[in-house]
Write a structure and sequence with these properties.
The protein is of the alpha+beta class. It is built from ten helices and 14 strands. It is rod-shaped, with a radius of gyration of 53 Å.
Length: about 575
């Protein structure tokens, strides 16, 4: 509060207010300079939000490292902008308050020492001279004094007409200065010092004013705040540079932290990849007692348990393969003897006792079925052991299909659609096994006529075998190439072994091809499609290995066939 009171001897004097810039002395209206400051603060806040949005909408977060760097950057940016904004605001208020205190204090003192000494009825010259004296007192501000020459005739004295005149004083400030305050216990003086910050001609200024209590001139001062603005601009640039450095430092810190944290994670990922590739002896080096070390211990324990279980399973699988292989080889000798006996019995079947003949026919049939089963088991064993090899040769596919059909006396039951001269590099024996199984399966479980067509599609050879039977049940289709699959649990026994289509698929896959089975779109029969590469590229070749000198898989042995039984046509001996 700033007020005037009567001095000793009835003189007039301006009394200093203990707090001339308190709430009661400040002009309550908002001012352009205040809006400028608030606009700058909002600009800084908007820049921070824009940066966050740009970072969020920028590069897709494809790695944990990028996420860590972005998070560190956002945290550092938020902290730096907040700290810089608070520091700027505090320094701004401190600088402006210090300038205001000095300027308004000096102005109040000059008003008390010089303006209060002027007569109640003064002249323009006296006011001008006093204003110049007040302005030249070291306050570095301009002064306007407003007095009365006669009753109702105002007179104005200006220290610097080119810089500051009465017209430059805001009307709100003049009204506040001229308003006489009501005297109360909390307000001892009728007039106070008021001030505000404004902008004139693009330059910020401090404008203050007061009047003499008991009569006398009213004084206004104008103080330029441009030096303070320049100082605050320099401070703002310094804080912006500090914010940028803090952001860069946080990025470097995030990079170091990411390297420290992600390096064990990267090692864990590499170890998991090697483990997935089958390198079950992969282990991680454990160091420390933190969460990552505990994760490494857990990984090592899981890898060790997995390695043990896989080793046990491999041992059991290998034992099973050896058992099947040994059993098949052991059965070959008695089967050879039984085959010779059944051939003799078959030749003498017509001369046997009618009571004995059915039993002999059953023995002959079951012996052949057992012989086929042993041959198929040996073929499956070779595939499982990885010893099956291809003996590739350039083959005329039409001639090969014709030979397969003719060797099994199927010429009257099969329609062949194939052009001669269609060459492919294949293993003739294994192609014969595939065709025998597919065609024999169609003849036994499908319906006549069976149609075989041979076409080419790019670098592939396509052989389609279609029948006109009832088709394959939808629930059976996914399992037709499974070993020993029986579609009907009530009829588990069949003439076939249930391995024929499985062996056909294995022979197609060793060529780099496959076989698909679907029902005909018109609902009339099933279609098996064999796809093989024509040039034999990408397949393992050899001299035949254990594949030579053995019997080929029996024709028509299907995994369940149409009725869940593995039946088919007669077998075809491989070339010795």
């Amino acid at each position: 509060m700033c007020a005037a009171t009567a001095g000793e001897g009835g003189g007039r004097a301006l009394v200093a207010d203990p707090d001339p810039y308190g709430a009661r002395c400040r002009l309550p209206a908002r001012h352009p300079l205040l809006r400028i400051r608030e606009g700058r603060d909002s600009t800084l806040s908007g820049a921070a939000k824009g940066a966050r949005r740009a970072l969020s909408a920028g590069k897709r977060w494809t790695s944990l490292r990028v996420r860590l760097i972005v998070v560190f950057g956002l945290v550092a940016l938020t902290a730096a902008v907040s700290a810089s904004g608070i520091a700027y605001w505090l320094n701004r208020e401190a600088v402006l308050t210090r300038t205001q205190d000095a300027a308004l204090g000096d102005f109040r003192q000059e008003m008390q020492n010089r303006a209060a000494a002027l007569p109640l009825r003064t002249t323009e010259e006296e006011l001008r001279r006093t204003a110049e004296q007040m302005s030249g007192g070291g306050g570095e501000y301009s002064v306007v004094l407003l007095g009365e020459r006669d009753a109702g005739k105002p007179v104005v004295g200006v220290s610097d007409p080119d810089r500051f005149t009465l017209n430059d004083v805001p009307a709100s400030l003049r009204a506040a200065v001229d308003e006489e305050q009501e005297l109360t216990s909390g307000n001892e003086y009728p007039y106070h010092v008021f001030w505000l910050r404004t902008t004139l001609r693009g330059t910020p200024y401090l404008v203050g004013g007061t009047r003499i209590i008991g009569g006398g001139p009213t004084g206004y001062m104008l103080k330029s705040l441009d030096p303070e603005r320049q100082d605050l601009n320099s401070l703002g640039w310094s804080l912006a540079v500090a914010t940028l450095l803090a952001l860069l430092g946080s990025a470097l810190l995030a990079q170091v932290a990411a390297t420290t944290v992600l390096k064990p994670v990267h090692r864990l990922g590499e170890a998991a990849r090697r483990l997935g590739e089958g390198r079950l002896d992969t282990r991680l080096r454990v160091s420390g007692t933190d969460e990552l070390a505990e994760l490494a211990r857990t990984f090592n324990s899981a890898a060790e348990s997995l390695q043990k279980k896989v080793a046990d399973m491999s041992a059991r699988e290998e034992s099973s393969r050896r058992f099947v292989a040994d059993m098949s080889h052991e059965l070959r000798t008695p089967m050879t003897a039984l085959t010779a006996v059944t051939e003799v019995l078959e030749e003498e079947q017509d001369s046997l006792d009618p009571m004995v003949a059915p039993a002999v026919s059953l023995v002959i049939s079951e012996t052949r079925r057992l012989n086929t089963l042993v041959d198929n088991l040996m073929e499956v064993t070779r595939f499982d052991a990885g010893t099956a090899k291809l003996v590739l040769d350039d083959v005329d596919v039409a001639d090969q299909v014709t030979a397969c059909i003719d060797a099994r006396a199927w010429l009257d039951a099969v329609e062949l659609d194939a052009e001669r001269g269609m060459m492919a590099r294949l293993d003739p024996r294994r192609l014969d096994v595939i065709l025998a199984n597919l065609i024999g399966n169609a003849l036994k479980h499908g319906g006549s006529p069976v149609r075989v067509s041979v076409r080419t599609s790019g670098d592939d050879l396509l052989v389609r075998v279609r029948d006109h039977g009832p088709g394959i049940p939808e629930e059976v289709l996914p399992h037709v190439f499974d070993r020993f699959y029986k579609a009907s649990a009530s009829r588990p026994r069949s003439e076939g072994s249930g391995l024929g289509l499985s062996i056909a698929m294995e022979n197609a896959m060793i060529h780099g091809g496959d076989i698909t089975a679907v029902n005909s779109p018109d609902g009339d029969g099933a279609v098996f499609t064999l796809r093989l590469p024509r040039d034999g590229s990408g397949v393992e070749t050899g001299d035949g290995g254990s594949a030579d000198g053995e019997k080929g898989g029996e024709g028509g042995e299907g995994a369940g066939g149409r009725n869940g039984r593995g039946d088919g046509g007669p077998g075809h001996e491989g070339q010795e």
